[in-house]
Amino acid sequence: MKDQEEFIEDSRFAQCDKEMRVTMWLFVINILLVGGVSLWIGLNKPAASMSYILGFPAWFFWGGLVGNVIFCILPYFMVKFFYKDMSIEAEDER
Amino acid sequence: MKWDVLIPICLALIVTFAIGIVLHKRLKVKNANFQEDYFIGGRSLGPLVLTFTLLASAASAGTFIGSPGVAYNSGFSWILILLTQVGMGVYILGILGKKFAIVARKINAVTLTDFFKERYQSKAVVLGSSIGIIIFISAYMVAQFVGGARILESITGLPYKTGLMIFGLAVVLYTVYGGFRAVAITDAIQGIIMILGGVLLWIFFFIKTEGFSGLIGQLVTEHPEMVELPGPSGATPLMLFSYFMLFGIAAIGLPHASVRGMTFKNTESMHKSIIYSGLIMALFTIFFATLGPFVKVLYPNLSVPDMALPTLILDIMPGWVAGIVLSAPLAAIMSTVNSMLLVTSASVVKDIYLNYINPKASERKIAKLSYFTTLIIGVGVVLFALTPPDYLQFIVVYAIGGLEATFFAPIVFGLYWKRATTWGAIISMYAGLISYILLGELFPNPFGMQTIVTSTAVSIFLMIAVSYLSKRPSQEVIIKFWGSQRAAANSGNRSIS
């Protein structure tokens, strides 16, 4: 773009954009892990042929409970591996 | 009148708000200016307070009263739908991210409307965002008042309308008197009470009843549809996907939640808060909503489903414990309504009155006007709540969807896409707002998905199409938002020399 040569982009924003994209991937994983697993086990299955774990329908146990427990651990790794500490003040430090 | 329940509730409420005010005064940031301090706590929130204030602003009466009510009749399919909100905090913080916090500091924004004003430089955008806030946040507040009145009804045995009047009056007066100040800190205290309340509730539930395994058999025999998918709440794959949008990623469009993305102190707070918020939202959701279907077995004939959880709590817990557990959602409702009332009246006074009607109003006149606006909106909302719907959760869903359809595209594209133009924002914002209302009235759930997905898609499509068709944003705006400030200073020098 011709306009871009007139200014230097804030050097922190490349990392910010990357973190945004990683978070979008986490959203996809969330859908598959919770929604996907529940629907895969339980969709259109009549109550009579369902199995139960600890008093919950099996699809809810694996997708809703276990799926969410795993999902709650994932942000820890996302932050650890993809997020970086930086100054968030208005001035760009470097 | 159940005094043993009522007294702990009043005490817990008074103590939390007192602690909030005292702590707030002590932690007040020295160098921040008034607006910064008043609206976003001087951009100084640590991880724990940030997490709770973010989640409490998004989940209040809906999570604690509304959802167990729907689950009482619809069963596990609804709980699965509700569990799509677990990632909400992660997405708000992760996607708006550091960029939102940095940009807000660059342009000195303290509200979402400030952000729009600077980014799109258009009165039509400011007006659209005010209209969206006034319509949908008012609807959201109606749901909160219904929830509060339901709790009072279950405890005191007062008729719904009397409870509503007492609760409404208390909240409105508290807001006019106390303002926004201590909200973030009280949110954190209440959040901790809610989690402890959830733990206590499960312990009592397992002692007093046969537990989940004991009750599920009866549920399956009497209401087999409640354990099935899609089930009565219609959780088809497409519907479930819409709810992942609605309660998950599109929550970025909730103005009262996304503004919290400007408040963290540093990236460490933000990182920790991302990790905590998934976990805490999961606990909130699982602790309360999961009991809904089992309440159906224990009390099959409740006439108002929203009373499911309060009924259970009052029945299986000793009075004073029930009082403390019930005080948590009540307090959450109060603090949510409190901040929403102020957001709405600020929108009327600051964004509409000062921009269009009388830009030169005196300080005193503004203060007077703010006071009356807050009072009028508050009373209006209470009047709407006089005829409550069967399930308050459905108003919550409607209001959330409307806010998201209006704000999602302008925020996300304004932040990440340099080419997003003023016209793109105007068209996408109004198209989102109007298509959501019209589709909801005439043709709900097109293509088997929630109205929100269609409206947001329309809004995003128009944002991209119209932006390409209109003139690119001025270099000034690009430099202000994207340029490093040193470079901006340099280019300024160059143009002088």
Automatic annotation (TrEMBL), chain A:
A family per Pfam: DUF997
Transmembrane segments: 22-43, 59-79
Lineage: superkingdom: Bacteria
This protein's record includes keyword Cell inner membrane: no
Keywords: Membrane, Transmembrane, Transmembrane helix
Alphabetized InterPro entries for the sequence: DUF997
PANTHER family: INNER MEMBRANE PROTEIN, INNER MEMBRANE PROTEIN-RELATED
UniProt-recorded name of the protein: Sodium:pantothenate symporter
Species of the source: Cytobacillus solani
Automatic annotation (TrEMBL), chain B:
Keyword Cell membrane among UniProt keywords: yes
Regions that span the bilayer: 6-24, 45-65, 77-96, 124-146, 158-177, 189-207, 234-254, 274-299, 319-349, 369-386, 392-413, 420-439, 451-470
Signal peptide extent: none
Pfam families associated with the record: SSF
GO CC, any one term: plasma membrane
Cited Gene3D superfamilies: Sodium/glucose cotransporter
NCBIfam families according to UniProt: panF, sss
Family note: Belongs to the sodium:solute symporter (SSF) (TC 2.A.21) family.
Name this polypeptide is given: Sodium/pantothenate symporter
Organism: Cytobacillus solani
Organism lineage: Bacteria, Bacillati, Bacillota, Bacilli, Bacillales
